[in-house]
Design a protein that fits this description.
The structure holds two protein chains of two kinds. Chain A has helices at residues 11-19, 24-36, 38-56, 68-76, 96-102, 206-215, and strands at residues 112-115, 118-123, 130-136, 145-147, 151-157, 159-161, 166-168, 172-175, 184-185, 191-197, 201-203. Chain A is of the alpha+beta class. Chain A has a six-stranded antiparallel β-sheet, with helices on both faces. By secondary structure, chain B is mainly α. In chain B, 63% of the residues lie in helices and 0% in strands. Chain B is built from seven helices and no strands. Chain B starts with 14 loop residues before the first helix and ends with a helix. The chains are: A alpha+beta, B mainly alpha. Chains A and B meet through α1, α2, α3, α4 and α5 of A and α2, α3, α4, α5 and α6 of B. The complex binds zinc ion. Zinc ion is lined by residues 5, 8-9, 33, 37, 39-40 of chain A. Chain B: InterPro entries: RNA_pol_sigma-70-like, RNA_pol_sigma-70_dom, RNA_pol_sigma70_r2, RNA_pol_sigma70_r4_t2, RNA_pol_sigma_r2, RNA_pol_sigma_r3/r4-like, WH-like_DNA-bd_sf.
């Protein structure tokens, strides 16, 4: 399953996820990719170990209040044990964390057209970054756009190609300000992606730009 | 059983205490874990922007979670300190940002996937190497990493970190993941 993934998350993103420094939408991207990619999962857990070392070697530990241990021991009786880890490997197009945000798999998405046959669905996340699903019909192109911030695009179904490479299920394209690209879906299948950006998109052609305020992109 | 390391230079691993907590619901093992980790969690939360009263309360809650989630701890994938760190970090996001934190799909964990003692020891050794390497970093670089983990850097300010021996740990964890994937079939 994971061996076919060629384009991975950057170390900076994996460390940011581990450190708890990413906005929610980016956490969603990372969690979705990690569900499909054990290479990145192992790297992220390595960053967790780094966090553990920092906690362990924290030189200015702050003393707990007197009676803290007794208070905590008393609390042990109240709560309930969390059941053993549950396997959440999803059968559908969307990995588990994404299904949590969509409220189901592909058939639960409420798409809105954004032109040229391309459709999108904005996912509810708080903070400075935004997440949306993109539906690109087979053979179609996403309107040519640059972006002010970092844009992460992960393929969930089908594949697309742009000036950089070809991206298939599980692959993530990490695009910064400098990249102006035109993703084109493979002709064989409609392409569905999760796209996350930490700044609004700016489309180059005038119609999408006019529509931008209404589309919340 | 886990070998307790009592030498002054060897860090204590807490794996034996975790097993006692998980299998015997041993409160004195929990108390020992509490005395060690609760002050560190409290400091972590204060450095991340929490006030001391809230940090005290949360450190207690994190330790309660440690008790209730004890059987989720996998010593071939993480040290006890790492596992406690992830619980404290999630609580911090919950508390200070009031956001959900999406988690990857879980891999199975159960008796059939019980890790080999040898795997646990190798991970402990690799973790010790990483700690040493972290301490040997130039001050500026180590401070940058600390800032990232204590919540003082935005994701844009986190650069790719090099010079830390993460590669060997990563390959150990990868083996543990492969074992879990295999157990799923
Ligand atoms: Zn990956």
């Amino acid at each position: 399953m994971t061996e076919t993934i060629k384009h991975h998350l950057t170390d900076a993103l994996l460390m940011g996820y581990s450190a708890g420094a990413l906005p929610e939408a980016m956490n969603l991207m990372v969690a979705t990719h990690l569900s499909l990619c054990d290479t990145c999962r192992a790297q992220m857990e390595s960053f967790d170990i780094l966090g553990g070392c920092l906690l362990e070697d924290n030189t200015d530990a702050v003393a707990m209040d007197a009676g803290a241990l007794d208070a905590t021991l008393a609390m042990l009786e109240d709560g309930e044990d969390v059941p053993a880890r549950q396997i959440r490997a999803s059968e559908g197009v969307f990995p588990g964390p994404l299904q949590d945000y969509v409220g189901g798999d592909l058939d639960s998405v409420r798409w809105k057209p954004i032109g040229m046959g391309v459709r999108q669905a904005i996912l509810p996340t708080s903070g400075t970054a935004s997440a949306r699903l993109l539906y690109i019909p087979a053979g179609a192109a996403v309107p040519d756009h640059g972006h002010q911030g970092i844009e992460l695009t992960m393929v969930l179904q089908g594949a697309f190609s742009d000036e950089v490479d070809r991206f298939a299920r599980g692959d993530v394209e990490v695009a910064d300000e400098d990249l102006e690209h035109t993703p084109v879906a493979d002709i064989s299948e409609d392409c569905i992606c999760l796209a996350v950006t930490d700044a609004p998109l700016r489309f180059k052609s005038w119609i999408p730009r006019l529509a931008q305020p209404f589309l919340r992109i | 059983m886990n070998v307790k390391k009592t030498g002054s230079n060897e860090p204590k691993e807490w794996v034996a205490e975790m097993r006692l907590i998980r299998e015997a619901r041993d409160k004195s093992a929990f108390a020992a874990l509490f005395q060690h980790f609760a002050p560190r969690i409290k400091s972590f939360l204060i450095r991340s922007g929490s006030d001391p009263v809230m940090a005290e309360e949360c450190a207690q809650e994190v330790m309660v979670t440690v008790w209730h989630k004890a059987h989720q701890f996998d010593a071939s994938r993480a040290s006890v300190a790492t596992w406690v760190f992830t619980i404290a970090r999630n609580r911090r996001i919950d508390l200070l940002r009031k956001e959900r934190r999406p988690e990857p799909e879980e891999l199975p964990w159960g008796p059939e996937a019980e890790p080999e003692q040898a795997d646990i020891l190798v991970l402990q050794q690799e973790t010790a190497h990483l700690r040493t390497a972290l301490k040997a970093l130039p001050d500026a670089q180590r401070e940058l990493i600390e800032k990232a983990y204590f919540g003082d850097l935005s994701h844009r300010e986190i650069a790719e970190q090099t010079g830390l021996p993460l590669g060997t740990i990563k390959s150990r964890i990868r083996l543990a993941l492969d074992r879990l994937r295999h157990a799923m079939k």
